[in-house]
Amino acid sequence: MAGTLLSALLLLQLLGRGEGKNEELRLYHHLLDDYDPGRRPVQKPEDTVTVTLKVTLTNLISLNEKEETLTTSVWIGIDWHDYRLNYSKGDFGGIETLRVPSELVWLPEIVLENNIDGQFGVAYEANVLVSEGGYVSWLPPAIYRSICAVEVTYFPFDWQNCSLVFRSQTYNAEEVELVFAVDDDGDTISNIDIDTEAYTENGEWAIDFCPGVIRRHDGGSNDGPGDTEVIYTLIIRRKPLFYVINIIVPCVLISGLVLLAYFLPAQAGGQKCTVSINVLLAQTVFLFLIAQKIPETSLSVPLLGRYLIFVMVVATLIVMNCVIVLNVSCRTPTTHAMSPRLRHVLLELLPQLLGSGAPSEVSRAASPPRRASSLGLLLRAEELILKKPRSELMFEGQRYRHRTWTAALCQTLGAAAPEIRCCVDAVNFVAESTRDQEATGEEVSDWVRMGKALDNICFWAALVLFLVGSSLIFLGAYFNQVPELPYPPCML
Ligand SMILES: *[C@@H]1O[C@H](CO)[C@@H](O)[C@H](O)[C@H]1NC(C)=O
Ligand SMILES: *[C@@H]1O[C@H](CO)[C@@H](O)[C@H](O)[C@H]1NC(C)=O
């Protein structure tokens, strides 16, 4: 009885050794029991650990122009060989890979050197995968905030050159060598890898090129072997539509309004200036918007800033111009004398040049006859009354029929001659002062027309200045394309 019990127990124990014991745990203990994660995985001190690196970009989160920070979300694929983790899967129940916490094995300590927030390492310490033969791979995710000097000269038609610099923090070039990973076809992956399925497109930035280089610093002759850096460059181009819709189009439209000031008549007075000053104020708001967006650098002026300064200068010139034209338009003969030369240039030559002379000539031609005829009538009436007091004047037709009556009337008129003279003098005076008034009015309207002529020529000058300036500034933006670099495009 006791013998059968003993043999059953033995059998159980045997079975337990075969199946019940955790193979993974056994492998774990086999590999890590006398493992020191602080030691480099080399047998001889002069050996180098070769670490392959592959950076996969999953999201270009943002580029903060003001703080000059690029935020990216990446996966860092690091592979190396650790002879201490060599095992054969035949000995451990066919286990292909063992996952171990990253702090239990040696790590090459690759950090992002040009970070800006003290976050050198990865965001999440993922497990390390150990495969048969001692091959180790680690793929931790990371959110990096790296420094990126923003070049604002062509904002918002700019492209930026940002880089991610990786290096091993603790080991020099002789201890750890960094190389690029190799893909299934045997090609070196020196680009930042962008998996189109995992990648989330950024609304503001398009990635044009993303080459990587490995740079070895020799470190001088006496202070050791130096170190290796992997530098990934991201050439990103801004998609300008947002700024075109929200700033450039409104700004051009508002600035174009300033030209309307020239079409306001002189009677509108100060309104001419009000229009341009309002535009000037609106432009200041746009300038403020831009100033909030770009870094506070004095190294260069952004294109949009240059444009705003330009249109503000144009608006200021137009305000000054309006004041001067108003000064001309509102002159009167009592305060200013009009020089004939000025009059000739502004009222005759200029309208001819601009092809707008016709209406003023017509109005000039039309008005004198009316005046001449009324004046002429008066003069003729005066003449008749004075020279023919016994008037055949009004009664010529009736002379024969009412001879006696007419003679009587003539006598009465003759007697009243001094009063009629008085009357005629009064009429003459009225005529005289009307003539004076009309002359004054004509000179006032000449000044107004002179103002209009000035407005006319200044309008064309301002229009040309505005159009040429705007197109020159925006043409500069058009030619600011990313140069053709000797790299394959980043995204296919
Ligand atoms: C792993 O160890 C075995 C024997 O111990 C050896 O033959 C093999 O070459 C090692 N593998 C590697 C990749 O070093
Ligand atoms: C981007 O910057 C790096 C160094 O900061 C430089 O080597 C590279 O030539 C630049 N690329 C372009 C296209 O300017």
Automatic annotation (TrEMBL):
Transmembrane region(s): 241-263, 275-295, 307-328, 457-479
Signal peptide: 1-20
Keywords linked to the UniProt accession: Cell membrane, Disulfide bond, Glycoprotein, Ion channel, Ion transport, Ligand-gated ion channel, Membrane, Postsynaptic cell membrane, Receptor, Signal, Synapse, Transmembrane, Transmembrane helix, Transport
Sequence ranges assigned to domain Neurotransmitter-gated ion-channel ligand-binding in this UniProt record: 26-240
MF-aspect GO terms: acetylcholine-gated monoatomic cation-selective channel activity; transmembrane signaling receptor activity
Localization per Swiss-Prot or TrEMBL: Postsynaptic cell membrane
Pfam families: Neur_chan_LBD, Neur_chan_memb
UniProt keyword Nucleotidyltransferase, yes or no: no
Database matches in InterPro entries: Neur_chan_lig-bd (IPR006202), Neur_chan_lig-bd_sf (IPR036734), Neur_channel (IPR006201), Neuro-gated_channel_TM_sf (IPR036719), Neuro_actylchol_rec (IPR038050), Neurotrans-gated_channel_TM (IPR006029), Neurotransmitter_ion_chnl_CS (IPR018000), Nicotinic_acetylcholine_rcpt (IPR002394)
Recorded topology in the membrane: Multi-pass membrane protein
Similarity remark: Belongs to the ligand-gated ion channel (TC 1.A.9) family. Acetylcholine receptor (TC 1.A.9.1) subfamily. Epsilon/CHRNE sub-subfamily.
Task of the protein: After binding acetylcholine, the AChR responds by an extensive change in conformation that affects all subunits and leads to opening of an ion-conducting channel across the plasma membrane.
The protein's name in its UniProt record: Acetylcholine receptor subunit epsilon
Organism: Phocoena sinus (Vaquita)
Lineage of origin: Eukaryota, Metazoa, Chordata, Craniata, Vertebrata
Originating gene: CHRNE
